[in-house]
């Protein structure tokens, strides 16, 4: 064989080897990812030929497939009237736009392709029964979900923009996860292309602040404002600072190394001061910014390191555990000096958290300092309702000691007592926050926060509420806007409120 023919033969052989390697990679290693890709319409066509499993919450069906006469044999439906309330949990299942949320992240169970359903598929094939998907049982309490959604919808003129997350402190179960405004997944699941496309276009306008398809509960980051004083106080306690330490009650304080003054809300002197100072307990109760700057910049031995480490222990600046829905990473930001620390200590500067993270902070205090892994799926079932898998509660870490958690709880009880509208059938421990979020000269509506748990002893529920557009506008506060929503959710579980 002459050399030109030999070179061509080698090139052809290499091309065949490369083709075989690529085919093997696509068909073996990438098969699961391609099959799960929500844009894969061929897979969707196959899935629409069989009944998809149900998604349930506390015995209530919140997603189910029903037979139709169209070429797509089944239509995915969500509970009429309340589909928008559960949309952040279920997501959507659409022939044109794929899937999201639980519909996406538990797709292999719902569509019946999961390896754990192999025996069921085998039996169905030989019995002549149409193949079916398995079911997903969520941890969501449908009553709490509706109360949280309705409270957000009715809490502001035109509806509140924001989120509510409720957790069971000792297990990490997600009891409610609401994001408003929301959307109706039935329209994306429709077999009418015009309905799907019009809805998708309407809900995905780039300049729309409402962004109804954004899950604010787990994927939106906010400055936490004074709710972050829970973490700041925890860091001080870990550093050895006592609750009775004396701190400045002044209406303003200069940030170290700068000519910048930081002030209390409304420019007021911290209430209940004596001789120009207050204790840490009083500063927490009345949420005095200047006292917390004094605390972190002059009363702690190793302030920056301890503050950052404590925030990390609570989950900031680390990969957030999937629920199985992915949760955006919260962050405390860079803290190069004491001036930055002073700003971060009151939940401003670069501190950003999701409502899920803030709910976890409250739940950790409620659980005696133990941080639990949050989870949304209670169990997976076969089509015949056999249990395939049950989620077991798991501990992530212990950011603070039980003694420190007890001290924080007592401070949060006092904070609740001084908050607008306090009092009710349940003893609640809470912290409010009113967070600035832009560099404008004034007039913006701050983010209103409320994190809490109840009862304050042996807590059964921890909540985080954030509202972006409180009715008072620039005068919005966490106590006036977010607290009533959080209390309504807590009372719906432990206070006998109806949903």
Automatic annotation (TrEMBL):
The Penicillin binding protein A dimerisation domain, residue ranges: 52-136
TM region positions: none
Molecular function via GO: penicillin binding; peptidoglycan L,D-transpeptidase activity
Domain Penicillin-binding protein transpeptidase: start-end pairs: 162-490
Highest taxon of the lineage: Bacteria
Gene3D superfamilies, per database record: DD-peptidase/beta-lactamase superfamily, Penicillin-binding protein 2a (Domain 2)
GO biological process, one term: cell wall organization
Region annotation Disordered: where it falls in the sequence: 417-442
GO cellular component terms, semicolon-separated: plasma membrane
Polar residues bias: start-end ranges: 429-442
Name by which UniProt lists this protein: Penicillin-binding protein PbpA
